[in-house]
């Protein structure tokens, strides 16, 4: 594959084929007679007609007055005629496609550009049309191209006196010019016909290597050209020659300074030894990495592909050696020259340059990163480079596609060297299987894989592992692996379109199977319903029973509450509510849970309902997801606590305020009742917003997605995450205002609970005053004036005499109440600003209900 190579069996194949000379041409070469004495050509011999016509053409070129002597003119005509005949007998081919119309246009442009006039171009066009109509000239394109080549050669030789210099220059480039010669002399004196090697070893004639040099024949050096050729071939194999050796410190080849070499020879030798330098670089890389298994299969495949390319290079070396010393001939001159060798090695040199660049770039890369570096050169503007890289990528990418094929059909990842763009952590527990067990490495993603396709491949393999490991369904994976035995032709480099279509089909099929197992076998939708009903308190009768049954118990200190008591109350609530008709498997997963207790926490702060999930449902409902549900559940229970505090003691506080109408604390009690009414209004409207505009509407948007057959596990996880984020945003108003700590709604709830403590302290003080007043009344008056039975049952005893100073105690209580009222007003103001800055569609109803009488906010923004 390293270029078109000559055949080793026939080293002379491709050289000019010399036919026997006709009588006329023989006479022309051996004599110097004038053109008037030339005999006519035999019309029966086509070769004789060609020779006769060529002689007349050459003679026409030399009919100039500058040629003074007849003898000199005859010698020039004879030499030029022999030169032209050798050209005609050669097998040289042009480098362009034979297109007569294109050639005619090129000549017209040439005439227009050189003469600066359109007259000659128009004249040529008319002559070309006449020539086209003639049938006597069989190869018109070649004739016109020959004339164009002569004209261009003349243009390049500006400063010459006449066009005879074109042919005379050609005569000067010939090594010998004898009118009579043998076959071997003709071969030596022939123009430099360069063999152009092909992949199968056949040799075709190419353009003359003489065009690669600027001057005429240089002065010969003291070393024969065959010795230089032998040295160059050694250098091609990385071996030091007799006159050229490798300079290791400078990393280059150098010619022995004691050897005398001409400048043209030095230039061409230095150009040739580039192949040897590139060969050393490539082979050093191959020898270093081909047996190193720690760097992965792709690196070894790359070395193998390079070594395969070098095998064709060795074949070229053998052919070149045969050309230097042809078998069966004992000649002093070699059919191979340095110039011919330079032309022969252009294609192999190009391949070696590409390999040298790849070796340098890929020195520290492996796996998918190495494939990406090589793939970047596939879209090169040079078709030769593009095709070479494509062939190389086909070999190098085989290990990658084998790993990919096993991943998409079996879910197995056999990548000990870390070459694939997907990695796995086998120590990850099953509860974190989907999120943490597998991951992607962007740096190892090959450039020929689209990102969307790579994501589908990643999800496809994860789904197969999920079906096999979490769902314990091995039949589907086994059938999929058998299906992969018939699609190996798709997993090759260059079949991206077919591979993409097939991957998408496997992706849909596998995801449908995984979701079908989750929904049909493991009741995924029922678990989502259970979370919505029990953790988010949508099962209203059960939630109300728990509040009524455990309200007093939860008001105690958290360290005085036991989980088994709460679990028993939860079981009783399930039996006494509509929850008893639910799926038994769902009810068994419900449990009462106590969170971590901190100093000063009440039972309401640590109690929540828990829901246990197992494999494979924990893939969707992971620990992270369940923590969000617990956060929402705790907040909703906190709202239930505020509602309980507002409603359970309302009657007792109203009665106490009426009984203390004539005391000094009555204005304080009345102000507290007004603030309490405001708080009750805010909490009721917030609960309405959460229950109907947050929980219900968000669930209505999420629930239908579970029935979408086109969804995959990643899609369900993404939508579920969006669902939870929406709940947090709408329920807890997690949009924070600048320079404010905590969520706005959370601050409102905390301010209500703080006010409850201060209000309770004021009521205890008022209760103590009421008891003192009752002691001074008659028994019949006490029964008609006061009814403290409810107050005594709800509020603990408070003895005014225990305080040092009653006035100081009342002032401290008033200061605490005022602080709590101020805090509540600030939290409501903060809530107002957050609602106005948030999405109006989601919170417009809450704004309207809170501010139905424009008590809290006014203005156009409401």
UniProtKB/TrEMBL annotation:
The answer, when asked if Cytoplasm is one of the entry's keywords, is: yes
UniProt lists compositionally biased (Polar residues) regions at: 1-10, 187-201
The alphabetical list of record keywords is: Cytoplasm, Cytoskeleton, Microtubule
Taxonomic superkingdom: Eukaryota
Annotated localization: Cytoplasm, Cytoskeleton
Q: Where does the Gamma tubulin complex component C-terminal domain lie? A: 524-856
Question: A Gene Ontology CC term for this entry?
Answer: microtubule
Composition bias (Low complexity) maps to 30-45
Could you tell me which residue ranges the Gamma tubulin complex component protein N-terminal domain spans?
A: 229-519
Q: Which GO terms describe its molecular function?
A: gamma-tubulin binding; microtubule minus-end binding
Stretch list, region Disordered = 1-45, 178-201
According to its UniProt entry, the protein's GO biological process terms are:
cytoplasmic microtubule organization; meiotic cell cycle; microtubule nucleation; mitotic cell cycle; spindle assembly
Asked whether the keyword Transmembrane helix is assigned, the reply is: no
Q: Which family does it belong to?
A: Belongs to the TUBGCP family.
The protein here is known as Uncharacterized protein
Species of the source:
Powellomyces hirtus
């Amino acid at each position: 594959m390293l270029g078109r190579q000559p055949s080793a069996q026939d080293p002379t194949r491709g050289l000019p084929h010399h036919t026997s000379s006709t009588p006329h041409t023989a006479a022309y070469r051996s004599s110097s007679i004038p053109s008037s004495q030339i005999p006519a050509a035999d019309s029966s011999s086509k070769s004789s007609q060609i020779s006769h016509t060529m002689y007349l053409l050459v003679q026409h070129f030399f009919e100039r007055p500058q040629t003074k002597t007849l003898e000199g003119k005859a010698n020039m005509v004879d030499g030029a005629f022999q030169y032209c005949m050798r050209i005609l007998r050669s097998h040289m081919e042009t480098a362009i496609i034979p297109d007569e119309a294109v050639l005619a246009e090129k000549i017209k442009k040439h005439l227009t550009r050189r003469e600066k006039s359109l007259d000659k171009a128009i004249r040529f066009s008319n002559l070309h049309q006449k020539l086209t109509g003639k049938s006597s000239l069989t190869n018109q394109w070649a004739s016109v191209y020959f004339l164009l080549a002569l004209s261009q050669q003349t243009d390049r030789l500006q400063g010459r006196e006449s066009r005879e210099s074109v042919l005379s220059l050609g005569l000067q480039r010939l090594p010998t010019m004898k009118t009579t010669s043998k076959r071997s002399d003709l071969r030596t004196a022939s123009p430099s016909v360069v063999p152009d090697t092909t992949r199968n070893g056949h040799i075709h004639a190419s353009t003359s290597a003489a065009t690669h040099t600027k001057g005429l024949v240089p002065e010969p050096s003291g070393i024969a050209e065959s010795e230089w050729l032998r040295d160059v071939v050694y250098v091609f194999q990385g071996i030091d020659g007799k006159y050229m050796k490798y300079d290791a410190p400078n990393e280059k080849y150098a010619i022995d300074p004691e050897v005398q070499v001409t400048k043209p020879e030095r230039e061409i030798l230095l150009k040739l030894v580039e192949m040897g330098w590139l060969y050393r670089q490539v082979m050093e890389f191959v020898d270093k990495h081909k047996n190193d298994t720690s760097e992965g299969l792709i690196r070894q495949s790359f070395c193998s592909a390079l070594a395969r390319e070098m095998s064709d290079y060795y074949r070229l070396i053998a052919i070149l050696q045969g050309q230097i010393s042809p078998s069966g001939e004992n000649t002093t001159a070699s059919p191979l020259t340095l110039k011919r060798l330079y032309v022969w090695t252009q294609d192999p040199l190009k391949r070696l340059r590409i390999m040298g660049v790849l070796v340098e770039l890929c020195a520290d890369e492996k796996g998918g990163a190495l494939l990406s570096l090589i793939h970047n050169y596939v879209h090169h503007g040079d078709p030769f480079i593009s095709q070479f890289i494509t062939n190389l990528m086909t070999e190098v990418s085989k290990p990658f596609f084998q790993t990919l094929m096993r991943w998409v059909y079996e879910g197995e990842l056999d990548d000990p060297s870390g070459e694939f763009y997907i990695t796995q952590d086998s120590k990850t527990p099953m509860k974190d299987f989907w999120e943490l067990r597998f991951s992607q490495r962007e740096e190892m993603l090959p450039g020929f894989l689209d990102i969307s396709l790579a994501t589908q491949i990643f999800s496809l393999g994860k789904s197969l592992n999920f079906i096999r490991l979490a769902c314990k369904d091995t039949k589907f994976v086994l059938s999929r692996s058998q299906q992969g035995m018939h699609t190996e032709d798709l997993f090759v480099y260059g079949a991206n379109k077919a591979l993409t279509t097939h991957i998408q089909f496997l992706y849909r099929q596998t995801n449908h199977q995984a979701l079908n197992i989750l929904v049909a076998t493991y009741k995924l939708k029922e678990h989502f319903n259970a979370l919505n009903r029990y953790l988010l308190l949508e099962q209203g009768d059960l939630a109300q029973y728990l509040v009524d049954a455990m309200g007093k118990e939860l008001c105690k200190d958290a360290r005085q509450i036991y989980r088994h008591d709460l679990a028993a109350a939860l079981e009783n609530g399930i039996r006494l509510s509509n929850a008893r008709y639910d799926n038994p498997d769902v009810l068994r997963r419900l449990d009462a849970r106590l969170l971590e207790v901190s100093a000063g926490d009440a039972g309401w702060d640590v109690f929540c309902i828990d829901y246990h999930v197992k494999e494979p449902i924990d893939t969707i409902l992971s620990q992270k997801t369940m923590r969000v549900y617990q956060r929402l559940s705790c907040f909703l229970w906190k709202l239930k606590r505020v509602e309980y505090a507002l409603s359970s003691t309302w009657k007792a506080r109203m009665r106490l305020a009426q009984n203390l109408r004539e005391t000094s604390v009555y204005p304080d009690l009345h102000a507290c009742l007004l603030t309490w009414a405001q708080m009750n209004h805010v909490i009721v409207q917030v609960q309405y917003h959460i229950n109907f505009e947050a929980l219900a509407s968000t669930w209505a948007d999420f629930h239908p997605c579970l029935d979408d057959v086109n969804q995959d596990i990643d899609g369900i996880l993404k939508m579920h995450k969006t669902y939870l984020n929406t709940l947090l945003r709408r329920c807890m108003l997690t949009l924070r205002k600048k320079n404010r700590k905590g969520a706005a709604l959370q601050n409102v709830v905390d301010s209500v609970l703080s006010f409850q403590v201060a209000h309770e302290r004021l009521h205890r003080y008022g209760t103590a005053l009421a008891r003192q007043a009752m002691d001074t009344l008659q028994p019949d008056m006490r029964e008609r004036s006061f009814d403290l039975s409810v107050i005594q049952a709800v509020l603990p005893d408070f003895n005014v005499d225990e305080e040092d100073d009653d006035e100081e105690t009342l002032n401290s209580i008033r200061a605490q109440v005022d602080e709590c009222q101020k805090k509540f007003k600030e939290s409501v103001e903060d809530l107002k600003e957050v609602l106005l800055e948030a999405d109006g569609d989601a919170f417009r109803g809450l704004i309207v209900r809170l501010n139905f009488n424009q008590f809290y906010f006014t203005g156009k923004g409401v």
